[in-house]
Design goal:
The protein is mostly helical. About 70% of the residues lie in helices and about 0% in strands. The longest helix has 30 residues, at about 180-210. This is DUF998 domain-containing protein.
Length: about 210
């Protein structure tokens, strides 16, 4: 059997890139909307003191869980779009894998329901998922920043700033008193959303330029 030749050219689909990037933004909005909605709907909830994890447990857990699933898909959408328009370098490749892994981790966080309810039965992996997510969110923007500069140095500066701010602020969460850790966690969530939206903006510009 003769070996099949490779296709003569690689085809980039601008519509696919645009749709994936647009969904990434939508997924961020759905996560933010679910948290805000749960803040109003869940009884006796203090958004300053109570964390998002507290919203994800109990009778109304489906509200935040739905937002987490939407955000999980947004992270995967960034990974798929970024792989489709690979801008070169090992850092970009690592970032693609990191975004895909973060999507899986966020999905598991929502699906496992090990937070906010003192769950200690079986294998409880929530804290390890949080650690992994924290590391990946610090590394992914930084390693992709160099290649992202091909679309404008503003992307390089933004992604590196996000990585530095996340690295400096995320570990602080574990040492905060319970009276303010809720609002602090929301700030970290907003920073993660900014990272996704920055990548989505880059990919949207790329897709529109091709069209």
């Amino acid at each position: 059997m003769s070996q099949s030749p490779l296709p003569p050219t690689l085809h980039i689909a601008p519509t696919l890139i645009t749709l994936l990037a647009a969904y990434a933004v939508l997924g961020c909005l759905l996560l933010a909307g679910s948290v805000i909605a749960a803040d109003f709907i869940v009884p006796d909830h203090d958004w300053v003191a109570d964390t998002i994890s507290d919203l994800g447990a109990g009778r109304y857990e489906f509200i935040v869980d739905s937002g987490l699933y939407a955000f999980s898909a947004a992270l995967v959408a960034i990974a798929v779009a970024a792989s489709h328009v690979h801008l070169g370098g090992r850092g970009w490749s690592f970032g693609i894998v990191a975004f895909a892994l973060m999507g899986l981790i966020v999905f598991l966080v929502g699906a496992r329901n090990e937070y906010g309810d003192s769950d200690n039965e079986g294998v409880v992996i929530h804290i390890y998922l949080v650690y992994a997510l924290g590391v990946l969110m610090a590394v992914a923007p930084w390693v992709m920043a160099g290649a992202a500069g091909q679309m404008g140095q503003g992307y390089t500066r933004m992604l590196r700033a996000i990585a530095v701010i996340w690295t400096l602020t995320a570990p602080v969460f574990f040492f905060l008193p319970t009276g303010i850790d809720g609002v602090y966690e929301r700030g970290l969530g907003l920073l993660a959303i900014v990272a996704v939206c920055t990548m989505a903006h880059l990919l949207l510009r790329y897709g529109r330029a091709l069209r």
